Amino acid sequence: MLYSSITPEQKRRAFRDGLASGRIQQFPGAFNPLSARLIGDKGFDGVYISGAVIAADLGLPDIGLTTLTEVAQRAGQIARMTDLPCIVDADTGFGEPMNVARSVQELENAGLAGCHIEDQFNPKRCGHLDGKNVVDLDTAVKRVRAAADARRDPNFLVMARTDIRGTDTLAATQERSRALVGAGADAIFPEALRSLAEFQAIRDAVDVPILANMTEFGKSELFTAEQLQEVGVTMVIYPVTLLRSAMGAAERTLDSIRAHGTQDAAVDQMQTRSRLYELVDYEGYNRFDSSVFNFEVPRGHRAGAPGSERPNGEKEQS
Question: Which of 118, 119, 186, 198 is catalytic?
Answer without folding.
Answer: 118
